[in-house]
Amino acid sequence: MLKQHSQLMISLLVIADACAVAGAWLLAYWIRFTWLGVDPVKGVPSLNDKFLPLLPLVVAAHLVVFYRVRLYRPRRANTILSETRDIVKAFFVAVVAVVLIDYAMPESNKISRKFIATYAVVGTALFALFRGTVRAVLRSLRRRGWNRRTAAIVGTGLNAQRLLHALRRNDWTGMDVCYFVDEEVGDGRREIRGVPVLGPLRALGRIVEQHPVDSIFIALPATLSQRTDELLASLQTSMADVRIVPELNLLYAMRPNVSRLDGIPILSLRQTPLYGWNALSKRAFDLVVGLICLVIGAVPMLVIALVVKLTSPGPVLYKQRRVGLDGRQFDMYKFRTMRVDAEAGGPVWSQRNDPRRTPIGRFLRRTSLDELPNLFNVLKGEMSLVGPRPERPEFIEQFKREIPQYMLRHKIKAGMTGIAQIRGYRGDTSLKKRIQHDIHYVRHWSLWLDFRIFLATVFGVWFSRHET
Q1: Rounded distance, CA 156 to CA 460, Å?
Q2: Is residue 104 classed exposed, middle or buried when 0-12, 13-18 and 19+ CB atoms within 10 A define those classes?
Q3: Which of 85, 260, 388, 455 qualifies as a cystine partner to 438, CB 3.0-4.6 A?
Q4: What pLDDT, on the 0 to 100 scale, is given for residue 384?
Q5: Under a CB-based contact definition with an 8 Å cutoff, are residues 403 and 431 in contact?
Q6: What backbone torsions phi and psi does residue 119 show, to the nearest 5 degrees?
Q7: How many whole angstroms separate alpha carbon 440 and alpha carbon 448?
Q8: Residue 286 in contact with residue 278, Cβ under 8 Å?
């Protein structure tokens, strides 16, 4: 019955998608030839002439692409952001398919490039809005008790209880945990957090047969992981979806991800968030905003360079070796704020009211204007506008042995500013707090987070006296 219900829902979604694509195609025609300029010589092409005859092929191409990119798989556990990202990618591929279809058509039946561009924008926005509305409606129905699914959790340890809490907190997933399955509870309790505990583990197959559920989550502690094969074997006759929730120490995991190689699942614990579309979008943000900042800051940088040159002997720019993404070293550029012989005895950690600073250097450090030449590192791709501040190799050798998880901050590009900086952890402040914020940033990176940190830097850090 569950499978039939699922197939019915998918069939209805496919029909709705087809209607949405057709509606976007017609809306794009209306916008293109009503709101946008039309060549008076060519006039407005007839809807029946080219656009309606091509519509069945367009709809079919979209549905095939949506199926191939798995837009019709269950997405209860996905966030709205991740689903929207998948929708935009899928629609982009579908538009490329439409272009190829149009290219294969006879010359007399071809449609204009301006219409394709209009459809790409209108269609993507309309379809994302449509799917978002469907998702919101389904979530609302699940919260009201409709379209719910039942689940069982194998194990009662911290991992299993954390999963129960997550499913309850995110009730839009529509998952109701009916029971735990574990060995006999030592203190005599038969329920945990209001959920009954059944057992023992060796009777899992019989328990699921007597108490059917839609999904089974195996969330055993690491000490019992060797029993996973036994439990999976006992579930061979069950129709429930089986999912494994491995127990990971989050101190050693950063954005864990599962990939496959020749059918072998591989769990990555330290995967950088900057790959594929993420890397492209962050690089585009750095280039566009970095160039704008460089243009705006060109005159102030020229003035600062002149003042540095006139107020103290030595070069204007200070080049220092730093460590960035994946431990790669690069030369970071800053305006010189210290005397030329400041580190004659070797690298020294920066301090407040450092006597080695020049008079103009104190002002530049207090306002972070000494870091403006970092923009050249950003445009070269060695740094990003937002990210953990890069550190010197000499200090990293010390910190990586003293501070747990220190090296995780190098799984993303170093930045001109970061979440630690906007919260006041810069210069001679708590290094451990700074690293905690850096690792939090890497684990929760998003382009929107970069944008917020950048704005907070411009309107907060640079316009305040955050260092003396």
Answers
A1: 46
A2: exposed
A3: 388
A4: 93
A5: yes
A6: -65, -40
A7: 15
A8: no
Residue 254 dihedral angles phi and psi, to the nearest 5°: -140, 115
> What confidence tens digit (pLDDT) does each residue in 95-116 have?
888 888 777 766 655 677 778 8
Distance, in Å, from the CA atom of 171 to the CA atom of 139, rounded to the nearest integer, reads: 8
Both tokens assigned to 422 = 């906007």
Q: Identify the pLDDT of residue 467.
A: 44
Q: What is the pLDDT of residue 175?
A: 80
Asked whether the beta carbons of 418 and 453 are under 8 A apart, the reply is: yes
Which part of the chain has CATH 3.40.50.720? 149-247
Count CB-CB contacts under 10 A for residue 430.
11
DSSP string of 114-171, one letter each residue: HHHHHHHHHHHHHHHHHHHHHHHHHHHHHHTTSS-EEEEEE--SHHHHHHHHHHHHTG
pLDDT, mean of residues 53-73: 80
CA-nearest of 447, 417, 415, 441 to 279 is: 447
Any residues with CB less than 8 A from the CB of 25 and at least 6 apart, and which? Answer: 51, 55, 58, 59, 119, 123
**DSSP labels, 307-341:** HHHHHSSS-SEEEEEEE-GGG-EEEEEEE--B-TT
Rounded (10°) CA dihedral 169, 173, 178, 180: -70
Q: Name the 3-class secondary structure at 462.
A: coil
- Secondary structure class of 198 (helix, strand, coil): strand
Model pLDDT for residues 350-365, shown as the tens digit of each residue: 666 666 778 788 888 8
Can you spell out the DSSP letters for 16-42?
A: HHHHHHHHHHHHHHHHHHHTS---TTT
Residue 379 host element (H or E): helix 374-380
SS3 293: helix
Classify 180 as helix, strand or coil.
Answer: strand
Residue 91 DSSP one-character state: H
DSSP string, 200-262: -GGGHHHHHHHS--SEEEE---GGGGGGHHHHHHHTTT--SEEEE-----TTT-BS-EEEEET
Angle separating helix axes 52-68 and 80-104, nearest 10 degrees: 130
Closest CA to 449 of 231, 313, 278: 278
Do residues 120 and 27 lie in contact, with contact meaning Cβ atoms separated by under 8 Å?
A: no
- pLDDT at residue 143, rounded to an integer: 64
Bridge partners, residue 330, by sequence? 322
- Rounded CA separation 446/419 (Å): 12
pLDDT at residue number 465: 42
Fold adopted by 149-247? Rossmann fold (3.40.50)
- Output b/e per residue, 185-197; b: 16+ Cβ within 10 A: eeeeeeebeebeb
Q: 8 pLDDT exceeds 60?
A: no
